[in-house]
Write a structure and sequence with these properties.
The chain is built from 14 helices and 13 strands. It has helices at residues 2-11, 17-27, 72-86, 102-115, 129-138, 153-157, 184-194, 219-224, 234-237, 252-266, 271-283, 286-301, 329-340, 366-388, and strands spanning 34-36, 96-99, 120-124, 127-128, 141-145, 165-170, 197-202, 228-233, 246-249, 319-323, 342-346, 350-351, 357-361. The strands form three sheets. It has a seven-stranded mixed sheet, with helices on both faces. Strands 1-11-13-10 form a four-stranded mixed sheet, with helices on both faces. A two-stranded antiparallel sheet has the order 4-12.
């Protein structure tokens, strides 16, 4: 059954509904599209780190191979960043492996887990479809589960992890914005003590925690035990998806396995992008996080009496998981595309598909958010009229 499922879903891959809609918009550039698909936050105008601050040696970057583990200057910058974010005194550059983005980092870990004998993955739902499919492509059978980010998850996970299992968790969660409790790292440690699991903690939104207490990724655990790794990237936390720079934080045993695998698969990661990433991490992302706060404030100000925004904002992330209350959200998204030049990310981008939801970005300029919400309202009203008639 599993081989039939993989053949059906991976042998003849098709572009997602989102990519299909984007292609339509890109093929008609003269029309006034409003594209509300990205959950990558945008730097406020005038606040982007300037690339001119990079080392003069960066022009030589394309002419040499970087170390497969990553440039020392970047791994040092990442280690400093993780010490500041998590309060860990144990993380060092030797615990860092630089990857070609967060998805590449996850793929490396998934493929390494299969090489070690793991054949099953349990992942938090809903999960970005790319992560789900990367697990399948690596050779893992995937089961999804809703998690609370608290000790209550024990009773849910224990019966699912009776065999060697890759346990994928993501906080702040994409797409819901849910955050884990302060004691969740201790929970994961106790759970790993009593179950044969490899915990993969996806922290690509860890800068965007807006609750009463900041929830740090379990970096201390990752560097102290080989059955837990933390994955992160420049894409969301620094608003730079084009750099394709991510990283794995792990125990020296984990690093010792991942680095040879990266060398076999890619030799090394783009040197110029690594040098620039070191500069950007050193610059910090306070203005970017401030931009997301401003976007959240814009939504909060428009929430009073709004039929889609009456729920409290999530404690984390750069998007809202918005229930439109429509039976066929894919048909509505196509209608919004055709009639209102509005491009939306629907729940088809996640697994399992939860009917009726879209992902609405909070990392855009407040004016763009206000205009996008107004356009979405117009499209929804017209859709309801169309459905009735």
């Amino acid at each position: 059954m599993r081989s039939e499922f993989i053949e059906k879903n991976l042998a003849t891959p098709a572009v997602s509904a989102l990519q299909r809609r984007l292609a339509i918009a890109e093929s008609r550039p003269d029309e006034p599209w409003s594209v509300l698909v990205e959950n990558v936050p945008c730097w406020p105008e005038g606040k982007r780190p300037e690339s001119s601050t990079a080392s003069p040696d960066s022009d030589d970057a394309p002419y040499f191979y970087a170390p497969s583990q990553g440039l020392p200057v970047l791994r040092e910058a990442i280690a400093r960043r993780e010490r500041e974010m998590s309060g860990s005194a144990a993380v060092h550059p030797s615990n860092i492996v630089v990857s070609a983005g967060g998805m590449h980092a996850l793929g490396l870990v998934f493929r390494d887990s299969v090489a070690r004998g793991y054949r099953k993955a349990v992942c938090q739902a809903p999960v970005f479809r790319g992560v789900h499919d990367a697990m399948l492509a690596a050779g893992l059978a995937v089961e999804t589960v809703t998690l609370t980010g608290s000790a209550e998850d024990w009773d849910v996970l224990a019966p699912m992890c009776r065999e060697p299992t890759v346990l994928y968790v993501n906080f702040p969660h994409n797409p819901t914005g849910a955050t884990a409790s302060a004691g969740y790292p201790r929970f994961l440690s106790r759970f790993a003590d009593t179950h044969d699991v490899l915990v993969v903690y996806d922290a690509v939104y860890d800068s965007f925690s807006f609750g009463p207490e900041f929830r740090a990724a379990p970096v201390d655990l990752a560097v102290s035990r080989p059955d837990l790794v933390v994955v992160n990237s420049m894409s969301k936390n620094y608003g730079r998806p084009g750099d394709r720079i991510g990283w794995i934080t792990g125990h020296e045993e984990t690093v010792g396995r991942i680095v040879p695998r990266l060398e076999w698969e890619a030799v090394s990661i783009n040197s110029r992008a690594q040098q620039l990433a070191a500069v950007v991490i050193g610059h910090g992302n306070a203005a970017l996080v401030g931009g997301v706060r401003a976007g959240r404030d814009a939504i909060r100000r428009g929430a009073a009496g709004h039929h889609l925004l009456d729920a409290p904002l999530p404690n984390g992330g750069t998007q809202l998981w918005m229930d439109l209350g429509t039976a066929d959200v894919e048909a509505f998204a196509d209608f919004a595309l055709d009639e209102y030049r509005l491009v939306l990310t629907t729940s088809e981008n996640y697994a399992p598909v939860i009917p009726g939801f879209i992902r609405f970005p909070t990392g855009l300029a407040p004016r763009t958010i206000r205009e996008g919400l107004a356009l979405l309202d117009r499209a929804m009203a017209a859709w309801e009229v169309r459905q009735r008639t």
